[in-house]
Amino acid sequence: MESVRRLVLVVEDDPVINQAVADRLQAEGYDVVRAFDGPGAVAAHAEHAPDLVLLDVMLPGYDGHEACRRIQADRPVPVLMLTARADEADVLVGLGVGADDYLTKPFRMRELVARVAALLRRVDRATELAGRKALELGDLRVDAPARRVWRGDEEVRLTPTEFDLLLCLAATPGAVVTREKLLAEVWGWAGATGTRTVDSHVKGLRAKVGADLVRTAHGVGYALEVPAFRTPYGLVEE
Are 12 and 18 spatial neighbours (Cβ–Cβ below 8 Å)? Predict the structure, then answer.
């Protein structure tokens, strides 16, 4: 059976870079649609429903961060942001509006293609996890098939990567999961040793689900703590 071709939305205001990225992705077997500014990115996402978005940070109309926020509010989709800056503050802003990964300019096309493939593999693994039942840990509820999360009565909106990170930690509550295993399971980077990507996404996850939920094992990784139930009268331990 012929595999379904994936559709990638390329958003870059430099027409030379935009065309070069589109040509390389098409050569790798992807279908491509293109946009050149923030409003065009949001419109193309709504019209074409791409499997992944490559999104430059510096765009006319409104920047990539605002475009990402609007795209994720419409329909969650993996987003790889292209940026000339890679400082932690800039990365955290992107993660906060729904970016899944960053690639710093200038970049090699081979690395870009590898990042795209890794993000799409993660989406495929998440689809396989959709058969799992909902997890209930204290006042935390994770509905894997629907990819929704609640803390108490409040729904928590997570990016695709944050959801998969939470799901990976929730598979073994209380047990420390190494950064290397998280990179392999969530990002598909087997054998990788970098920690910045994991640490940055954990910060975003903590900000949304609660700082009490994810425990740091310094120098090793992270663990999901079973939260207490929240009641109108305060917290009750499970």
Answer: yes
